[in-house]
Design brief:
Strand content: 15-25%
Order of helices and strands: HEEHHHEEEHEHHEEHHHHHE
Structural class: alpha/beta
Oligomer: single chain
Helix content: 40-55%
Strand order of the largest sheet: 3-6-8-7-9
Length: 289
């Protein structure tokens, strides 16, 4: 805001236009803005199944992120000389946290001012997931509760990256992300198709916006997660083997955020020889909000 001043409103409103349009085109509803954050809601209605709405929530986030990355107006604002001097390499980007759960819907406020909103610990979980995208270096975090509702196709496109407890909850939760293709590598006509309201779930996730990781990377990653987590109670975890697999992942993709995050977490919690701690229960506490 210090650099862009009045133009920051233009930036936020441009982002909002992409967010709101994509959400409405995918069975969702924008609820409210909290500064530069958006509360978004998806509810099954009419003939739409829970799985279809869940898939569409992921599709909506992917479409928004791709559109923002490809927007020349937002790029022009991001390339403001004073802004680049203050934050070299700055780009406009968004992080999303997707979670499933109940909420109380109602009018919140007084006779002076009323907002329609949602009250629930699940809203807080979604907010914490969004905040944690920075910690993992990803643009989207999906909770285990939402992942179980996705169709087999969309589930197969997501990558499990951790098992944690979040602030305010003692229940372990698996976290998933979606490995975005680079928007700069996508032809303009394909970006137009990504924005098209008519694209089907199958076409979108199979042809228009498939995940980018190689089979080699995913094979090593799957091994790393099995060694890292072990059984549901952590039994059989082998962090020395997990680190060997993670090093192979880093060789295949040196810039993968979840890989570096897990390596840092293991180094911090492991024994002196890199072994699994005796009290490991198959999950860790995510200390950052």
């Amino acid at each position: 805001t210090e650099v862009l001043q009045g133009e920051v409103v233009q930036l936020v409103n441009k982002v909002a236009s992409y967010v709101h349009t994509s959400v409405k085109h995918n069975y969702g509803a924008p609820n409210k803005n909290i500064g530069d954050a958006f509360l978004l809601v998806w509810k099954p209605k009419g003939g739409n199944s829970v799985s279809e709405v869940a898939d569409s929530s992921v599709k909506s986030c992917l479409r928004t992120i791709m559109e923002i990355a490809a927007c020349p107006d937002l790029d022009a604002l991001a390339q403001h000389p004073d802004l680049q001097n203050q934050i070299p390499g700055y780009q406009v980007s968004m992080g999303f946290g997707l979670h499933y759960g109940w909420a109380i819907e109602g009018a919140i406020g007084s006779a002076e001012k009323i907002d329609a909103s949602y009250l629930s610990p699940h809203v807080n979980i979604a907010s914490r997931l969004e905040s944690s995208t920075k910690q993992y270096g990803v643009k989207l975090l999906i909770s285990e509760d939402l992942h179980t509702l996705l169709s087999p196709l969309v589930q197969s496109c997501c990558r499990k990256i951790d098992r944690v407890t979040l602030k305010g909850s003692n229940a372990p939760m698996e976290l998933y992300t979606y490995d975005f293709p680079n928007p700069n590598s996508i032809p303009p006509e394909q970006l137009r198709d990504i924005s098209a309201r008519s694209s089907t779930i199958e076409d979108f996730f199979t042809n228009l916006c498939p995940p980018k990781k190689s089979r080699e990377f995913l094979s090593h990653w799957s091994e790393a997660m099995d060694f890292y987590i072990g059984a549901q109670d952590g039994y059989g975890a082998d962090w020395q083997a997990a680190m060997r697999s993670l090093h192979k992942c880093r060789e295949a993709d040196p810039e993968d955020g979840p890989c570096q995050t897990l390596m840092d977490a293991i180094k911090k919690m492991a024994g002196p020889d890199g072994s699994t701690p005796e009290k490991w229960k198959g999950y860790r506490k995510l200390t950052e909000k």
